[in-house]
Design a protein that fits this description.
single chain; about 100 residues; mainly alpha; Helix Hairpins; 5 helices; about 75% helix; binds zinc ion; hydrolase activity; hydrolase; MazG-like_dom; Nucleotide pyrophosphohydrolase
């Protein structure tokens, strides 16, 4: 998993395992609420980059968003791949269709 090649082909679960290796010790010490606030802060920075039309910054901020989200999931013990598959694995959870046919 270490190295750009391994990370580049990682599944969502693989990314979560990677961020556990990189940040779990620090983030578990920080705690769930403060780690979640960092995640929200990064969403705000991504929104600023979108508003500014700065595609390079948006790309970097979205990487931060997924890093903090997966780090938060590690702290609270949620396997995000399982959660996503459980909710969205059969298409849109509201209409059950692929593609979504909701209005
Ligand atoms: Zn739908």
């Amino acid at each position: 998993m270490e190295g750009e090649a391994g990370l580049g082909s990682a599944s969502l679960r693989g990314l979560q395992v990677y961020f556990r290796k990189v940040y779990f010790s620090r983030d578990s010490a920080r705690g769930a609420e403060r780690t979640f606030l960092w995640f929200v802060s990064e969403v705000g920075e991504a929104a600023d980059a979108l508003k500014d039309g700065d595609e390079h910054k948006l790309r970097a901020e979205l990487a931060d968003v997924i890093a903090w989200l997966l780090s938060f999931c590690n702290v609270v013990g949620i396997d995000l791949q399982d959660a996503v598959v459980e909710k969205y694995g059969s298409g849109c959870p509201r209409c059950g269709s692929i593609p979504c046919s909701c209005d």
